[in-house]
Amino acid sequence: MHRMPLAFYLISIIALGYSRPTEEDDFVSCIDESSSSSDVSEADALKKFLYCFYKKTDVITGDGHIKIDNFLEKLPENMHSEKVREVLNKCNSLKTASTPEQTVLNIFTCIHAV
Protein backbone atom coordinates (compact mmCIF):
# COMPACT_ATOMS: atom_id res chain seq x y z
CA MET A 1 0.00 0.00 0.00
CA HIS A 2 1.28 3.45 -0.86
CA ARG A 3 1.51 6.12 1.83
CA MET A 4 0.28 9.01 -0.27
CA PRO A 5 -3.22 7.86 -1.13
CA LEU A 6 -4.24 7.09 2.45
CA ALA A 7 -2.55 10.22 3.79
CA PHE A 8 -4.25 12.22 1.05
CA TYR A 9 -7.65 10.88 2.02
CA LEU A 10 -7.03 11.54 5.71
CA ILE A 11 -6.32 15.15 4.84
CA SER A 12 -9.34 15.25 2.56
CA ILE A 13 -11.58 14.29 5.48
CA ILE A 14 -10.58 17.60 7.03
CA ALA A 15 -11.32 19.29 3.73
CA LEU A 16 -14.86 17.90 3.79
CA GLY A 17 -15.67 20.91 5.90
CA TYR A 18 -15.41 22.98 2.75
CA SER A 19 -17.49 20.68 0.58
CA ARG A 20 -20.48 19.82 2.77
CA PRO A 21 -22.53 22.66 4.25
CA THR A 22 -23.18 21.04 7.64
CA GLU A 23 -19.55 20.02 8.02
CA GLU A 24 -18.38 23.49 7.00
CA ASP A 25 -20.05 24.83 10.13
CA ASP A 26 -18.35 22.08 12.16
CA PHE A 27 -15.01 22.91 10.55
CA VAL A 28 -15.28 26.60 11.41
CA SER A 29 -16.56 25.98 14.94
CA CYS A 30 -13.69 23.57 15.60
CA ILE A 31 -11.16 26.14 14.42
CA ASP A 32 -12.73 28.63 16.81
CA GLU A 33 -12.79 26.14 19.69
CA SER A 34 -9.22 24.94 19.19
CA SER A 35 -7.73 28.41 18.95
CA SER A 36 -9.87 30.24 21.50
CA SER A 37 -7.07 30.56 24.05
CA SER A 38 -3.92 32.55 23.35
CA ASP A 39 -1.82 30.36 25.66
CA VAL A 40 -2.44 27.16 23.64
CA SER A 41 0.53 25.89 21.63
CA GLU A 42 0.14 25.15 17.91
CA ALA A 43 0.54 21.42 18.60
CA ASP A 44 -2.21 21.48 21.23
CA ALA A 45 -4.46 23.53 18.96
CA LEU A 46 -3.96 20.97 16.17
CA LYS A 47 -4.84 18.07 18.48
CA LYS A 48 -7.93 19.89 19.72
CA PHE A 49 -9.00 20.72 16.18
CA LEU A 50 -8.56 17.14 14.94
CA TYR A 51 -10.49 15.72 17.87
CA CYS A 52 -13.28 18.28 17.54
CA PHE A 53 -13.74 17.91 13.79
CA TYR A 54 -13.46 14.12 13.65
CA LYS A 55 -15.86 13.84 16.59
CA LYS A 56 -18.40 16.17 14.97
CA THR A 57 -18.19 14.25 11.69
CA ASP A 58 -18.73 11.02 13.64
CA VAL A 59 -15.56 9.20 12.59
CA ILE A 60 -14.14 8.81 16.11
CA THR A 61 -15.40 7.79 19.53
CA GLY A 62 -15.32 9.97 22.63
CA ASP A 63 -11.97 8.49 23.65
CA GLY A 64 -10.43 9.30 20.26
CA HIS A 65 -10.52 5.91 18.54
CA ILE A 66 -11.73 5.49 14.97
CA LYS A 67 -15.25 4.34 14.15
CA ILE A 68 -13.92 2.26 11.29
CA ASP A 69 -17.15 1.81 9.32
CA ASN A 70 -18.01 5.51 9.62
CA PHE A 71 -14.47 6.43 8.63
CA LEU A 72 -14.59 4.18 5.57
CA GLU A 73 -17.88 5.77 4.49
CA LYS A 74 -15.98 9.08 4.15
CA LEU A 75 -13.42 7.49 1.81
CA PRO A 76 -13.98 6.79 -1.88
CA GLU A 77 -15.13 3.25 -2.72
CA ASN A 78 -11.71 2.30 -4.11
CA MET A 79 -10.25 2.82 -0.61
CA HIS A 80 -12.56 0.22 0.96
CA SER A 81 -10.00 -2.56 0.70
CA GLU A 82 -9.13 -5.16 3.27
CA LYS A 83 -5.62 -3.65 3.49
CA VAL A 84 -7.02 -0.23 4.46
CA ARG A 85 -9.26 -1.88 7.05
CA GLU A 86 -6.22 -3.78 8.44
CA VAL A 87 -4.25 -0.55 8.79
CA LEU A 88 -7.18 1.18 10.49
CA ASN A 89 -7.64 -1.76 12.88
CA LYS A 90 -3.92 -1.92 13.67
CA CYS A 91 -3.61 1.78 14.44
CA ASN A 92 -6.96 1.90 16.20
CA SER A 93 -5.71 -0.75 18.63
CA LEU A 94 -3.13 1.66 20.06
CA LYS A 95 -3.50 2.23 23.76
CA THR A 96 -5.68 5.19 24.71
CA ALA A 97 -3.45 8.17 25.49
CA SER A 98 -3.84 10.53 28.42
CA THR A 99 -6.33 12.64 26.45
CA PRO A 100 -8.70 11.82 23.58
CA GLU A 101 -7.00 14.55 21.54
CA GLN A 102 -3.63 12.82 21.92
CA THR A 103 -5.20 9.46 21.06
CA VAL A 104 -6.53 10.90 17.77
CA LEU A 105 -3.13 12.31 16.91
CA ASN A 106 -1.36 9.03 17.78
CA ILE A 107 -3.75 6.97 15.63
CA PHE A 108 -3.50 9.22 12.58
CA THR A 109 0.29 9.43 12.96
CA CYS A 110 0.31 5.62 12.95
CA ILE A 111 -1.83 5.48 9.81
CA HIS A 112 0.47 7.90 8.01
CA ALA A 113 3.52 5.86 9.02
CA VAL A 114 2.16 2.61 7.52
TrEMBL record:
A molecular function (GO) term: odorant binding
Organism superkingdom: Eukaryota
SMART domains (alphabetical): PhBP
Pfam family, one: PBP_GOBP
InterPro entries, per database record: PBP/GOBP, PBP_GOBP_sf
Protein name stated in the entry: (diamondback moth) hypothetical protein
Organism per entry: Plutella xylostella (Diamondback moth)
